[in-house]
Design goal:
By secondary structure, the chain is α+β, with helices and mostly antiparallel strands. The chain has three domains: 2-26 and 458-599, Aldehyde Oxidoreductase, domain 4; 39-138 and 211-260 and 266-298, Aldehyde oxidase/xanthine dehydrogenase, a/b hammerhead (Aldehyde Oxidoreductase, domain 3); 305-456 and 603-749, Aldehyde Oxidoreductase, domain 4 (2-Layer Sandwich), CATH 3.30.365. 27% of the residues lie in helices and 25% in strands. β22 and β23 (565-568) form a beta hairpin. α10 (338-344) packs parallel to α11 (376-394) and α18 (639-658) crosses α19.
Length: 750
């Protein structure tokens, strides 16, 4: 078992191999590449949230002496329906093509309409005003409940609800319906002695990554076109561009720059196909970069939701039934994370009777994108708020209430499989024994607790380890590093090879220098790409043993490998990895190990968070005074980066709970498109977030790894909102718990 092994490198707090370049500013991010002859691209965006495009006249822009290319949707090949999975979501090519550049309608304020490439960035920006667009302005619909009404303004005349018993005859804004059930929900509520039912809402929120979307491209008519971009998955960028522009994959080389934050939002494309079309028409390399305002207005935020949750229990604390209706705003095109929300809402609980109904609803906002455990924070917020209120109604400690009903090995999930070994109980016990839970609260303070669940994914990963004549190695992988994964790969390879980590260099390769690797998302990288690294390292060890056996004229079975040294079992002779590599040309050539896998067995992860807040009852301002994030990592390969993931998820969730929201005018114009008015937490807003790493190994991974990147954002919404509710004595069901909302709740209750 993983917990019984003694590790030399796994579990250490090593220095990340890319750290020096990043702290000194030498690392190259999305907007850092410049090419000879490069020109600049800019996008004309819609001033309306909903309008029909009658005509686009680009003639004046095309006549401008500094303008070298203009493109509209008409320059793109026709795209038929179809798509593929990226992370936990689906890419619909037809919708994506219309999102990249609008076709016959604009569907949100900021929707791209046309693009210009000019000799300078300023010239491109100025020339946008030369494009004339004739609009027929339509009424927008921004609210989920309004969009679901039969007489609501339609975004798409050809959108018919999927997932109903009968195919509807009338188009609507409801893209799809999902139903999950387990047991007999009516019987479950009939057996309940106490029932709590509440409505909840969460706002549209942004991931808050610091680096805006940026790309530099070069189209080659007869050769290989190059795309450099800030992305979590350059292989999927290649596949998407290939489809949208009808190009052969072999004609596209995509290079992933360093990435200044993504959190799931950089798993799709906005600029790349447009830039490549501008490059094709101009014959010049093109650079494009979004402004911060463009990022907010026109890149994918996290979905707003409206939910209703009903939970019943016996007086002894046994939960008998859990029911939810979860409505998600998809933005302008279908595809919100409604499905994972339905799947995760109640998974922390071992309850016989469950029912979840979900709706994916289009509204006149930017197309929603993944945001760290997409769909789960909103769903589990509603569920955990009701759990906490039910515990209070029953007079049971909220941790004890959860322990009594906690999911564990063998629990049947509502979405299908039974859970293997998981660490929720261990996380709850750690919370119960934490210093924070034992600390008394002061006046005007409140405490909240919440659980969170995320399944994590595996997927395809490819790795090559090339050993050099001096015994050092290069780990070539295809997973962009968004959270320190290079260090984890280095450590796992070092553990398998038995050589010092300083002698191994991890490299994220482009799409031409490594086989396909799935997008960095779904908390998959340390798990899945790590498994590929381990397999490639084992391949290297096998070859090193064979080379040593050839030198000694014995079989490989007579050679042992330990701490980077081959030992002849019969004679005791030894050869180090360096010695074998130095003479590799004499035994068959340089040593190179490889792995191309489709990883299975990703380990689900549970978390439990504690939040203490203090509320100023005269202003409604809330301060988080103490916070503890507890989560099962399976095995923490690099504890510092695992803790960083816990703290980062908690910080984002706290912001979601307290301040963050898209604010729209009645006309659908976002009014706070910038970090000055869209208020993400600053370091001065937060206490030091305490962390507890629980390690219940995932038996499907050689080192016991579970993905940790996403679960940490799920509990904060309910933990914070419960703490605020506790402090003011009023149930807070609508996020964010901003000062105006909290003050109004206090005043209404007085």
């Amino acid at each position: 078992m993983s917990e019984a092994r003694e590790y030399k490198y796994i579990g250490q707090r090593t220095i990340r191999p890319d750290g020096f370049d990043k702290v000194t500013g030498r690392a190259d991010f999305g907007a850092d590449l410049s090419l000879p002859g490069m020109i600049w691209g800019k996008i004309l965006r819609s001033p309306h949230a909903h309008a029909r495009i009658n005509k686009i006249d680009t003639s004046k822009a095309e006549a401008h002496p500094d303008v070298m290319a203009v493109v509209t949707h008409q320059d793109f090949p026709a795209v038929t329906a179809g798509g593929f999975a990226v992370g936990e979501g689906q890419v619909d090519f037809k919708d994506l093509s219309k999102n990249v550049l609008a076709d016959d309608k604009v569907l949100y304020h900021g929707h791209p309409i046309a693009a210009i490439a000019a000799k300078t960035e300023a010239a491109a920006e100025a020339a946008l005003s030369l494009i004339d667009v004739d609009f027929e302005v339509l009424k927008p619909v921004l609210d989920i409940a309004e969009a679901m009404k039969p007489d609501a303004p339609l975004l798409h005349a050809d959108l018919f609800t999927q997932g109903l018993a009968e195919q509807p005859e009338k188009a609507s804004n409801i893209a799809s319906r999902m139903e999950l059930k387990k047991g007999d929900i009516e019987a479950g509520f009939a057996a309940a002695e106490v029932i709590v039912e509440r409505d909840f809402s969460t706002p549209t929120v942004h991931q808050g990554y610091i680096e805006p979307h940026a790309t530099t491209v070069r189209y080659e008519a007869d050769g290989q076109s190059m795309v450099w971009c800030s992305t979590q998955g350059h292989f999927d960028v290649r596949a998407i561009i290939s489809t949208l522009l009808s190009m052969d994959l072999s004609k596209l080389k995509v290079i992933a720059s360093e990435i200044g934050g993504g959190f799931g939002a950089k798993t799709t494309v906005y600029l790349e196909p447009v830039a490549l079309m501008l490059s094709k028409k101009s014959g010049r390399p093109v650079k494009m970069a979004m402004t911060r305002e463009e990022v907010f207005r026109a890149s994918g935020p996290g979905s707003a939701t409206r939910s209703r949750v009903k939970i019943g229990a016996r007086k002894d604390g046994t939960i008998t039934a859990m029911k939810a209706e979860l409505n998600y705003a998809a933005g302008a095109f279908k595809g919100s994370p409604m499905a994972p929300g339905c799947m995760t809402a109640f998974t922390p609980y071992d309850v016989e009777n469950m029912y979840v109904e979900g709706y994916d609803v289009v509204v006149n906002k930017p197309k929603a994108a993944a945001y760290r455990a997409p769909g789960a924070p909103q769903a589990e917020f509603a569920a955990e708020m009701v759990i906490n209120e039910l515990a209070d109604e029953l007079g049971i400690d909220p941790i004890e209430f959860r322990l009594q009903n906690a999911a564990k090995e063998g629990t049947q999930t509502i979405y299908g499989p039974k859970l293997k070994v998981v660490g929720l109980v261990e996380c709850l016990e750690a919370a119960k024994n934490s210093p924070q839970y034992k600390q008394a609260l002061a006046e005007n303070q409140g405490r909240g607790l919440a659980s969170g669940f995320w399944f994590n994914i595996g997927g395809q990963s490819s790795v090559v380890i090339n050993m050099k004549p001096d015994g050092t190695g290069t780990i070539i992988e295809g997973s962009p590093d968004i959270g320190g994964s290079r260090a984890s790969m280095q450590m796992m390879a070092a553990e398998e090879l038995g050589i010092d980590i300083s002698r191994l260099t991890p490299v994220v390769a482009d799409t031409e220098h490594i086989a396909y690797s799935a997008t960095t998302g779904g908390s998959r990288t340390t798990f899945a790409t790590g498994m590929a690294v381990i397999e490639a390292a084992q391949d290297v060890v096998r070859q090193l043993k064979e080379r040593a056996a050839a030198v000694w004229n014995v079989t490989a079975e007579q050679v042992e490998w330990e701490d980077g040294v081959a030992t002849n079992v019969a004679s005791g002779e030894k050869l180090s990895a360096t010695e074998i590599c130095q003479s590799a040309e004499k035994t068959g050539g340089q040593v190179s190990g490889r792995a191309n896998i489709n990883a299975r067995g990703a380990g689900p992860s549970f978390a439990v968070h504690l939040c203490d807040v203090e509320v100023d009852k005269e202003t409604g301002k809330t301060d988080v005074v103490r916070y503890t994030a507890i989560q099962d990592a399976g095995k923490a390969i690099h504890p510092s980066y695992v803790e960083g993931q816990y703290q980062g998820g908690a910080a984002q969730g706290i912001g979601w709970a307290l301040n963050e929201e898209y604010i729209y005018s009645e006309d659908g114009v976002m009014e706070n498109a910038g970090f000055l008015d869209y208020r993400i937490p600053l370091s001065s807003d937060l206490p030091m977030i305490e962390t507890v790493i629980v390690e219940v190994p995932n038996s499907f991974h050689p080192f016991g790894v579970r993905g940790v990147g996403e679960t940490g954002i799920i509990p904060p919404l309910a933990a914070v909102a419960t703490a605020v509710s506790d402090a003011i004595g009023v149930h807070m069901g609508d996020l964010p718990c901003s000062p105006p909302k909290v003050l109004k709740a206090i005043q209404d209750a007085s």
